[in-house]
Amino acid sequence: MTEAHETAREKTTAATAQDGPAAEGPAPVPLLAPREGTPEVTASADALAEVVRAFAAAEGPVAVDAERASGYRYGQRAYLVQLRREGAGTVLIDPIACPDLTSLHEALADTEWVLHAATQDLPCLRETGMVPSLLFDTELAGRLAGFARVGLGAMVENVLGYSLEKGHSAADWSTRPLPDPWLRYAALDVELLTDLRDALETELREQGKLEWAHQEFEAIASAPPPPPRKDPWRRTSGMHKVRRRRQLAVVRELWTARDEVARRRDISPGKVLSDAAIVECALNPPADVRAMAALPGFGNRSGRRQLGQWQEAVDRALALTEQELPVQVKQPSGPPPPRSWADKDPAAAARLSAARSAISSHAERLRMPQENLITPDTVRRLCWEPPTDPSPESIAEVLRSFGARPWQIEQTLPLLVGALTTQS
């Protein structure tokens, strides 16, 4: 660290200690380049082996980040992986040239990873063979500590007193070669991540929340990969307009055809055919490619090239028997929307109102978002169908079955017991 950087950090730390995590510190110091310069991209087996040796010999937590090409490429694979560890410095790895990072994972097997918004990067890192056993999520730590803004740039400014370069997070990271300004931006994303982790650990310890954070981090690290989504075509934007089963079939067939094209071409599905075009076609199924070309979203150059393929998908949907059509309404799981509770079950509505009020007030006292104190879905499910015996033990068991962590149960159990028993 330079002397100027250390001074900025000391001033900001003093302001935070005096005024709390939401305090405004002095003007941030722009961080324009990594302290050791921007490293070359690791893009060969020999270079990766050197990185593995260096990181295995280094000490302390490892800062980890990944850049994807969301909106440009199919899927959510990583196109750049950034790491930094004391004694090894910063490295930038090209996971296209080096797709198997298992050796790096093994070198860091017992090391704590520091990530910002870990759940966003873990899926694409898992594809490379990198899975943490221990982690510290600086975004989640910021939420638990009561920071109003928890983006990486805002946290680095408020906690450490530096301002990071902005502007490349939504870039097409599949671009090769990657421009130097993008690489500098990527390196800076892990430059201060461990410093931020240390400052937040101190803040959480002072607030008595460090054990809570550890339980949250453990839950993230131990969570299995999510199963494949059932009927992903139902998430097409604008589906609320599609009410007939035959129209649903058109959406399904077009979505499936688009997904096959996008996967084959390695391009974002939205760049192949927009959701709005799919819904419009479902509402007004064309009789032939000429009619289809007149629909919004199909007359552009990229759409015209595949009009025959899209028309075949529509024709398949129109030819299905009634038994082959998708169900009109996806069967919901869990309780109905809360707005209907007053009519369906007034007692449940009263329980929910009381529980929400108590949870909201306690979250304010703890200076954290109420969804981090306990998930709204957990509260809804408990209030809609409470245990027959609303004892603390029974309610605690229900909370555990919904995935609530011990600290969450400890903080919310008295509130939920009160809401369920006084409104029963």
UniProtKB/TrEMBL annotation:
GO biological-process terms attached to the record: nucleobase-containing compound metabolic process
Composition bias type Basic and acidic residues, residue spans: 1-12
Domain of life of the source: Bacteria
Transmembrane segments: none
Classification via PROSITE patterns: HRDC
Region ranges (Disordered): 1-40
Signal sequence coordinates: none
Domain annotation HRDC: ranges: 244-324
InterPro entries noted in UniProt: 3'-5'_exonuclease_dom, Exo_C, HRDC-like_sf, HRDC_dom, HRDC_dom_sf, RNase_D-like, RNaseH-like_sf, RNaseH_sf
Gene3D superfamilies membership: HRDC domain (1.10.150.80), Ribonuclease H-like superfamily/Ribonuclease H (3.30.420.10)
Example of a GO MF term: nucleic acid binding
Protein name, as recorded: Ribonuclease D
Organism: Streptomyces tardus
